[in-house]
Design goal:
60% of the residues lie in helices and 0% in strands. The chain has 224 residues and is mostly helical. Helix 3 runs antiparallel to helix 4.
Length: 224
Amino acid sequence: MSASPADRARIFQMVSLLLTYPDAELLDAGPQLRAAAADIAHVQVRAGVTEFLDWLLATPRIEVQRHYVQTFDLRRRSGLYLTYYLHGDTRRRGLALLMLKQRYRAHGLRLADGELPDLLPVVLEFAAAVGPGDGEAPLRQHRQGIELLRAALTGAGTPYRLLLDAVAAVLPPLTEADRDAVAALAIDGPPVETVGLDSLGYGPDLDGAALAPYPSCSASEATR
């Protein structure tokens, strides 16, 4: 089932919000979150987001918060920074970050202090705000990273996999070339050169360990 531009924007905005740290403000907004999920027209995505909300809102707050940190902050198998999957800590990653930031600025989106432009919730927020074409281009360009993250979350059995499934469901299908590239990245990992980021303002001191999340998954996991 395809999704209309308005429904894709609704899905991207919802997933962007749910991929942020589950603080009190988010967890106290259960009724509003359920109402927003009910407005999603895409049947498969609506079911997945509703299932995720069932878990999120029924699980004790401290457990949800601990699970989030363990999933995205403490595991090398998953990370929310998309350019790392393809470029590692190389000059190319620095350029990719700079290009993303310039794209956002051209459309009036300003990042919070210390926030990297390839953070998946930010990329999704941009897609929701700007729409098809330029808005969704970063998601298409970083589809390989999205698939690697999706495979890692699926392998870990975390409910957060449902949110990546929602994003994948409304993006263009993977080509055979995409699948081959994802499988190769899953096996070989990103480039390991560690020069070229400092001069662009994205050195290792910015966001520390969060700059290096790589999902160690098998080729079969990555291409499912």
